[in-house]
Amino acid sequence: MTSPGESAVRLVFPGFKVGWDDPEDALRLADLGVGGFCVYGGTVSEVAEFCRRVQERARTPLLLCADYEDGLASHVNGGTAFPSNMGLAASNDESLAFEKGRLTALESRAVGIGWVLGPVVDLATQPLSPIVNIRSFGADPGLVTRMARAAMKGLAAGGVLSCIKHFPGHGDSDLDSHLDLPLVEAPRDVLAGRELAPYAALAAEADSVMVGHLAVPALSGDRRTPATMSEAVVSGELRGRLGFGGLVSTDALSMHAVAKRYPELEASASCLRAGCDIILVPENPRQLAYDLIRLADSDPATAGAVERSSRRLAEAMKTLEARQAACPPMDSGSVGCASHREAAARMAERCLAWGRPMEGVLPRTFAYFEPDEGFPGELHGKVFIEELKALGFEPAAKADAGAGETLVAGLFVSPRAYSGRISYASEELGRLKAAAARASKTVAVAFGSPWALAGVPEASASLAAFSASADAQRAAAAALARKLTVAGALPVALDKR
């Protein structure tokens, strides 16, 4: 019979960076009895080999997970890159969200990942949020719910578990929880009609929920306790009022919102007692496992929480097994295959939206400018430029537009963990405005945050591609060349500050 301590270890899911971390350490953690790993990085073959080795080593099947929010290319070299959630929302086509989910699931399963930590259902209500932005389907709860439901169905059809995140809603904060504890101060009635609405609508269908490391005093009763460690938030709101009975994961415990405030055992035990089940990516998983064994074997409250969480993990594993049994087997050779790449390219063409439509046609010669540090030595828009050249244009990458010359500005600022910002620095913005002021006409193209377009008030036209992928860059080039009709609509208001 499994002891509470042994069961507690199975709720620990260490992170593993393929090509960086030592596989032998992971195998020893599998020997210790962890329940899964959160896998980052690597090539297709490296991820597949890692997943195979740890599964073979484990005494019971592992639940392997990854943040493949925009397909395997989010982390894996060789995976297919799909449009961002905000790009999909711009298309307003749920079938695209379904197909993105289904193909992501097929590629995930092919390398051994059974639990995709997505889709994001945070609302993009705060333009200065450094961590949500284009990961969100938009600012409207109804649109977010519709698109997320389609994505969830696609992931299920492809044979994996999904995870809606980050409860109770990370979008209305201008702080990255990788760096510190965000504070969301909206009152309960506002949260109910906004941030909590997608969770309420999707609770009966969701495979799992990830709770974010953010303080929400309207729900928790204080301004200092992360939602992950709050019984009022997890057990009271998510499991109680919304009725969610499935698997609940913390966000990564190594994030500074928790890691720099609490000892790891204290944080983990608090998360379990609050109603979370999976302790995701602790900083020191081996030490945490030993500490949890001692605590669960000696503390009845922790043992009770572990027992409840163990049942939910077992149910999730049964769901995954049934789902995979109903799907044809996959192998890593299918990852990034031609049919998946073609589907992604077709999606990208649908995931464009004008901020300000372009009148007339783009001149054959024009100046191309990126405000990012390092320009033009480090060009983010290489694919964009090459595609425009292939379409008969002659762009010149330079900081100065000549007299009477058109300027095309490529804007690549995007959400990035630990960066702490989602807008250009003042020096970069100054370069952008100066370049636009010298040009006779400016066309701004955002390959990340659409709000970057608001930093170019001089632009006569602006286009949002919502992604820096090669497909998005080619689609944007085709749109400027009038070879592609832009049919999407912005799912956020660019003038909101």
Account of the protein in words:
The chain is α/β, with parallel strands linked by helices and 497 residues long. Helix content is 40%, strand content 11%. The chain contains 18 helices and 15 strands. The chain has a six-stranded mixed beta sheet, sandwiched between helices. It has a three-stranded parallel beta sheet with strand order 6-7-8. A two-stranded parallel ribbon has the order 1-9. Helix 5 packs parallel to helix 6 (141-157) and helix 13 (285-298) crosses helix 14. The mean pLDDT is 94.
Number of domains: 2
Helical residue percent? 40-55%
Supply the number of helical segments: 18
Q: What is the overall silhouette? A: globular
Give the strand line-up of the largest sheet: 10-15-14-13-11-12
Q: What fold name goes in the CATH topology slot of the largest domain?
A: TIM Barrel
The counted number of beta strands is 15
Question: Strand share of the residues?
Answer: 5-15%
Stretches with pLDDT under 50, minimum 5 residues: none
Name of the CATH homologous superfamily of the largest domain:
Glycoside hydrolase, family 3, N-terminal domain
Termini separation comes to 57 Å
Mean pLDDT, to the nearest integer, reads 94
**Rg over CA atoms:** 23 Å
What CATH first level of the largest domain would be assigned? Answer: Alpha Beta
Strand count, sense and barrel status of the largest sheet are: 6 strands, mixed
